[in-house]
Amino acid sequence: MGRILINSDHRPDGSWVIAPTGKVDVFTYGDLKKCLDELAGANPAVMAVVDLHGVDYVGSSGWSVLLSRRSSFRRQGGDLSICGMSDKLKRVYDTMKIDDMLPASASVDDAIKQFRSGQQA
Question: In this structure, what DSSP letter does residue 105 have?
């Protein structure tokens, strides 16, 4: 079974950075889902960036969590974006053609700037 470590950081601008490390697969997606659900439950209209810098694999269950949680965040007046994808993850992301449903940025700061400027879909 896989293990995933998830760190979260509340930034001074009010946004949150969620940084999983490891694999987000059938064994670990529930941990990411729980983390994001707890964040949204405690912080309506939260702006969150999931930094995938420390993630070497995202399975279909992990992508599903990210997509569904973005929808949930947006319904509450918040938003969710991802950043820090490796070339391997970026190829999968591009192949799935989900950029309009799950925006990605090069860095946390870029994602926050997009939130603030309203450029995200």
Answer: E
In this predicted model, what pLDDT tens digit does every residue of 99-108 receive, in sequence order?
A: 999 999 999 9
pTM here is 0.93
User: 45 in the Ramachandran plot: left (φ > 0), alpha (ψ -120 to 50) or beta?
Assistant: left
Candidate CATH numbers 3.30.750.210, 3.10.180.10, 3.40.640.10, 3.30.750.24; the one for domain 4-112: 3.30.750.24
73 within 8 A of 80, measured Cβ to Cβ: yes
Angstrom distances, CA of residue 1 to CA of 4, 6, 24, 25, 54: 10, 16, 11, 10, 18
Domain edges within the chain: 4-112
pLDDT at 72 over 70: yes
Region for residue 68 given its phi and psi (left: phi exceeds 0; alpha: psi -120 to 50; beta: otherwise): alpha
Q: What are the tens digits of pLDDT across the range 45-58?
A: 999 999 999 999 99
